[in-house]
Design brief:
- The protein is mostly helical.
- It is elongated, with a radius of gyration of 17 Å.
- The relative contact order is 0.16.
Length: 154
């Protein structure tokens, strides 16, 4: 089960990135051109936020069943000196949690804005900050110390 969940979490990141980019690009475009906020835009906001939350739940389940994390928690003091263990045991989950909070707050604030321009502005800024946080904490294949493959087999 662990490896299937890990592969799903790894593949789902691409859906997160695609939906975040689509929402951010659409928000900046509509904000700059003073476009109306349509039901389609609201659906995009909601779907993107939901996708990010699903990814976080997958990651949270992985966190509690991962042998890497079990080792990290059992050998906390020593693990803090190991970059890879520290990254997955603490840094990755903390930064991703902050990103989820930022995106959720941005979504809620955008929903409550009185004008379309303010809705798009709020989504663009808050989602962009969330995306930067996410990108900073993904274990990319090019990362020197915590690299992971772009696609994991099932």
């Amino acid at each position: 089960m662990y490896y299937h969940l890990l592969a799903t979490h790894s593949l789902f990141r691409w859906l997160v990135l695609a939906s975040m980019l689509a929402t951010i690009i659409r928000s900046f475009y509509c904000w700059s051109r003073n476009k109306p906020f349509t039901p389609r835009d609201n659906t995009l906001r909601l779907v993107t936020t939901s996708i990010v939350h699903i990814q976080f739940v997958l990651g949270l389940v992985l966190y509690f069943i991962s042998p890497l994390i079990v080792y990290f928690l059992q050998h906390f003091k020593e693990s803090m000196h190991n970059r890879q263990l520290r990254f997955f045991g603490m840094e990755h989950i903390c930064v991703m949690l902050v990103a989820i909070v930022v995106i959720t707050i941005g979504s809620a604030k955008a929903k409550r804005q009185p004008t379309a321009r303010l809705k798009f502005k709020t989504m663009a800024i808050w989602f962009l900050v969330g995306l930067v946080l996410i990108l900073s904490s993904v274990p990319w294949a090019f990362s020197p110390l915590v690299s992971r493959p772009y696609f994991r087999p099932f």
